[in-house]
Amino acid sequence: xxxxxxxxxxxxxxxxxxxxxxxxxxxxxxxxxxxxxxxxxxxxxxxxxxxxxxxxxxxxxxxxxxxxxxxxxxxxxxxxxxxxxxxxxxxxxxxxxxxxxxxxxxxxxxxxxxxxxxxxxxxxxxxxxxxxxxxxxxxxxxxxxxxxxxxxxxxxxxxxxxxxxxxxxxxxxxxxxxxxxxxxxxxxxxxxxxxxxxxxxxxxxxxxxxxxxxxxxxxx
Length: 220
Ligand SMILES: C[S@@+](CC[C@H](N)C(=O)[O-])C[C@H]1O[C@@H](n2cnc3c(N)ncnc32)[C@H](O)[C@@H]1O
Prior knowledge:
Elements: E1 2-3, E2 20-21, H1 23-39, E3 44-49, H2 55-63, E4 67-71, H3 76-89, H4 107-110, E5 115-121, H5 129-142, E6 143-153, E7 155-156, H6 164-176, E8 183-184, H7 185-194, E9 198-204, E10 210-215
Parallel strand pairs: 1-2, 3-4, 3-5, 5-6, 7-8
Antiparallel strand pairs: 6-10, 9-10
Helix pairs in contact: 1-2
This protein binds S-adenosylmethionine (SAM).
S-adenosylmethionine is lined by residues 22, 25, 49-52, 56, 73-75, 78, 100-103, 121-123, 126.
């Protein structure tokens, strides 16, 4: 197993184990799973965007066994890790991970069926504003009537970071690429409302993160 807070193993060493472990995912997955258990529809189809290592989806699928989970990530090494954690979990309600670039316009139309729950954790600060808008608009489009969207991550409030640590991390992201960085929570909510979703609640989470819950209320 490769831990994301440690340097990569030299080529060949330990390379037969595709599992990747992220300390941040292990820290927050039980807290997010508890919120999902409270707000998610109990049955049908859950789509996870930017699944990362797969340590989230195995916990979410264990806590919400009535949902069939579809993890996705554009990175092949992450998809291999998701598949390995899924195998190890023995859970039958996780589909094989799919390749999905959520910033690509039109992906929602290509999904095999609408999702009753969409979960997105810790992606928006790593992409540009137009990319984030596409991700959010496509997620709104893929939700079934009555479907719920849960968005977790760090956000600006009134354009400001809420701690020195957040300000430093945001600045380091913008130094790498001036197009990326924390998004403002109000802009994010406005984008989702424009896309047809209703804001249900905002939950303050540890380390200044927020968990936002949205719902598609229209009935067809
Ligand atoms: C910070 S990690 C978060 C992973 C996981 N959600 C978590 O919180 O542990 C960001 C993830 O987003 C994925 N990613 C990057 N660009 C993406 C895109 N355009 N569409 C979907 N996922 C993307 C990366 O491969 C990576 O797995």
